[in-house]
User: What shape does this take?
Amino acid sequence: MAKCSICGRKAIEKIEYARKYLCSKHYTEFIEEKVRRSIRRYGLIKKGSKILLAVSGGKDSIALLTILSKLSKEIHFKPYVLHIDLGIGKYSEVSRKIVEKAVQETNLPLIIIELKDLLGMSVLELAKKSGRPSCSVCGIVKRYLMNAVAIEMKADAVATGHNLDDIMTFILKEFLQQNLDGITKLVPRIDKINEAAAAKIRPLYEIFEKETLTYVLINNIEFVKEKCPEARTNTLNNVLKNHIHILEEKFPGIKYSFIRSFLRNIDKYPKLYMEKLMKCCICSLISSGTKCSYCKLTEKTHGEPLGMYTRNYIRKLLTGMDYQGY
Ligand code: AMP
Ligand code: ZN
Ligand code: ZN
Assistant: This one.
């Protein structure tokens, strides 16, 4: 392997699009600097703000936790970690342990929501009872809980571990399905909507999937290696992601130029979904109809919508946690 372009030590990786070789120390700094720049470029985090980090235990959100924990000391913001224990057998047990360990090492406050405790059912049981696919139930529950926790603790934003490959995959998928409205949500930051939807930020917006993996591996950071046993493999998302990877290998830099041009054009896409948004009649959180998907789902599985119950459960969980003063 060649030598690091900065210090001359043994390089561990070649960054094709930047035309340089880097050693592990300079690779780590390079990735952290990219995140720092995205935060600045897109105005993601302000000094003094409270940021809820949604951490599943996978490589991306574990990298997010590690990097934002470091940057919080520089930018002076307060990170909190949220982990949702979905109750998917061994997979969820391992994920929770990994997040707990990472949190111990970074010394950040941790909020764990255990679905079995909250609803008396795991994601799989909810899926069975509602007759809906488990991935769609999982998505509804996760999105709802992330938003509800952020609202209850008055966080300034929820940060997720979506990387550039994820975002580009979603954009291409929405384009193929001509869901141009959905495309407008795939930006680095979505602002808060009243007290119904917390702001959402994606600090790894410009980081490649391969880069979060290399980052955690070279820094010996533990992460969940198994895929969720429920995840299907032959999905449009997976096929698109593989092709995006091949595109970047053949044309280094194409992912960057795509995402930059995309953001320049973002105002040209219709933003119709904004007009359809309303507050759920049960829980008052964001909804695209009179009742939100979570209230509709729990109505099916429990005989009554549990949005308001869930908000109260979260409120109680947060009481006693020093989530305001920290
Ligand atoms: P996914 O939808 O599983 O691809 O995950 C996208 C992002 O959502 C991750 O990068 C995390 O930030 C967050 N996330 C996913 N699963 C969980 C979980 N069980 N607990 C907390 N955050 C999660
Ligand atoms: Zn070096
Ligand atoms: Zn609701």
Summary: The chain has 14 helices and ten strands. The chain has one domain: 41-269.
